[in-house]
Each structure stands twice: as structure tokens, then as C-alpha cells.
Specification:
Elements (H helix, E strand, L loop, with lengths): L2 H15 L10 E6 L13 H11 L4 E6 L2 H9 L5 E5 L6 E3 L5 E10 L16 E5 L13 E5 L2 H9 L5 E5 H10 L9 E16 L2 H19 L4 H6 L11
Parallel strand pairs: 1-2, 1-3, 6-7, 6-8
Antiparallel strand pairs: 3-9, 4-9, 5-8, 5-9
Helix pairs in contact: 2-6
């Protein structure tokens, strides 16, 4: 074999031996998600971060988080480039939800007060034009037929309501208030309302693989153990969020 061909062969072997860019180290669990204030902060602070560390440190694992867009994060879990996506309300092909949640709560509609002068709950949304962040909700989340559109940001969704090209901006309450507080020019609170229109649970997402199922079992067992030991409630209280009812038995 000539020297150039030998060098090429050695280089090929070396490249195949390199780990993927996002591969986990031994004893490491990789989580992925977008940034959600109070849940997945870029500084490692947030409810989801703290719960993951509490669960997996019990078995000696470390947790590393990567901040990525939602669709990219789900793809990474499906392809084995990451272990867990936090969090989702429904499973997708090639993915499985944990059977216990990390968070549960209401979602809300923001609308101009004059749009619904006689608000009568979620039934008022029938055939109305709703807008939400891409991938966050679906028409299945509502008991009445609705029209809908999606945007990349809460700010764009809010703009559509202000301009009256949409009737309601749908989101988690704290995300709505965060968007309103950052909106310019500031909105006059007398001109809009925020009302609860639904309730759902959010659970971490795992791959349908042996490792995915192992980690899903570890997560479920870990959350139940923390609840039984009285260590789960203080985490939720720290972040001023309700502990899911599944752990309050």
C-alpha cells in the first residue's frame, strides 16, 4: 500500500472514531429545548433544569442542556443526538412522552376588550381567529371549531391582536404577561383582557429506543421517589409553580 493511500485510510478510521457533536459522555444526560423563562433559563436556572438534575443526580448522572428551537430539539431526540426534550403535550412519531408530567396548568387567551364585550368562556372562541407560537397549540386543544395562524414569536402574535388581524393570542399566562410587559408602545391594561381557555399537562419527550425507554423509566421513578420523600414540592414552590396533581396523592 502506498504512503498516500495509507494516510487516507488512517484519516478515515480516525474520523469515524470521532463522537458526534452532541453525543453524551458516559453518565451524562443531554436535554434540549427553547428558552422558556422560569423553566429553561440559559444560566441553568429554571423548573425543568432543577427537576432533571434532581432526578438524574440520584443515579449518578450529570445533565447538560442545549438551547435549541423546538423542532430542532425534537429532531435531535429522534435521531439520538440528545436524550430528552423538555417539554411537550403530545407524542410524535419516533418519540414517547413520559407517563408523568413536569408541569401542568392553564393556557389563556389575550384579546381586545371590545372584541368580546360579552365573554362567556371558551365557547366564545367558536370560529374566531386565534394565533399562537409555531407548534405550541393545535385546534384539538379547543372544544369548539376555531380558525388559527402561527407565528415565530409571542410579540408577533400580540401585534396581530393589536392590529385586529387576529382575535386572540393563545399562550401560557406567564408567557403572555412577559410578552405584554416587553411590548412597545406599552399597552393600556383597560384595552385588553386575559382569560383562561384550557388546561393541559407537559411531559418530557424521549426516543423510542432502548436508551430512551431506560431514561423515561428513570425519570418516572425519580419523580415519584422525590414526591414520596417530600423533596418535590419545595422545587415547585421555589419557582412559584403548582406541583402536578399526579404527585399529590
Amino acid at each position: 500500500m502506498t504512503r498516500p493511500r495509507l494516510h487516507a485510510l488512517l484519516l478515515t478510521v480516525f474520523l469515524f472514531a470521532l463522537p458526534p457533536a452532541f453525543s453524551a459522555l458516559a453518565g451524562e444526560v443531554i436535554t434540549v429545548s427553547p428558552y422558556w423563562k422560569g423553566f429553561t433559563g440559559p444560566d441553568g436556572q429554571g423548573l425543568y433544569h432543577e427537576l432533571m438534575h434532581a432526578v438524574f443526580s440520584r443515579r449518578g448522572d450529570t445533565v447538560r442542556h442545549l438551547e435549541v428551537p423546538a423542532k430542532r430539539g425534537l429532531l435531535m431526540v429522534r435521531e439520538g443526538q440528545a436524550d430528552i426534550y423538555t417539554c411537550q403535550t403530545k407524542a410524535e412519531d419516533g418519540l414517547e412522552l413520559a407517563r408523568v408530567p413536569m408541569y401542568e396548568g392553564e393556557f389563556h387567551a389575550l384579546f381586545l376588550s371590545r372584541t368580546f364585550p360579552h365573554w362567556s368562556g371558551v365557547t366564545s372562541l367558536e370560529n374566531k381567529r386565534l394565533v399562537w407560537r409555531l407548534g405550541y397549540y393545535s385546534p384539538d386543544d379547543f372544544p369548539v371549531p376555531v380558525q388559527f395562524d402561527e407565528t415565530m414569536t409571542g410579540t408577533e402574535a400580540l401585534k396581530r391582536v393589536v392590529r385586529e388581524s387576529s382575535d386572540c393570542y393563545i399562550d401560557d399566562y406567564h408567557l403572555i404577561t412577559e410578552t405584554v410587559n416587553a411590548y412597545q408602545p406599552p399597552l393600556d391594561a383597560i384595552n385588553y383582557r386575559i382569560e383562561s381557555v384550557g388546561f393541559r399537562q407537559y411531559a418530557p419527550v424521549f426516543a423510542t429506543s432502548p436508551r430512551g425507554r431506560e431514561l423515561r423509566d428513570a425519570f418516572e421513578q425519580g419523580m415519584r421517589a422525590l414526591a414520596e420523600q417530600g423533596k418535590l414540592l419545595p422545587i415547585y414552590e421555589k419557582w412559584k409553580l403548582p406541583m402536578p396533581r399526579a404527585y399529590q396523592r
